[in-house]
Predict the structure.
Amino acid sequence: LSLLDGIEDLKTNYQRITSIKGIGMINALTILIYTENFTRFTDCRKFACYVGVVPFDKSSGTSLGKGKRISRLANIQIKTLLTQAARCAVVHNPKLRTYYLRKLSEGKKIKLIISNVRNKLLQIMFALVQKGQVYINDYQNQLDIKFG
């Protein structure tokens, strides 16, 4: 982490994304490297496609009604790291845990839920970097407070 001391933008983005429960040093550094400090992929959807978190329809020939599948042409290293981060986040992040338990009670498969949590983690990371904020665990939306 002493390498980050010289580059202020990299250090602040590292601190932002490691404020998320489930994202550790290895995950953060890998994502910062592959996104080139969030300049190579400015859109979360593009990076999620690169990582292999977003499912695609099969729409050719006889496979029209088979449902959505995740591409096998993904970056397996980041996908594996995000899987471990998602499993950790489901245990330690209260909001992601309630999401996980809700989907589990709906009868969804665990692999699908973990994939959704990976995607949510990516969305949170990109949002924190774009807004320049740190993750707040007990954040409540003002609309929820006003109308809840």
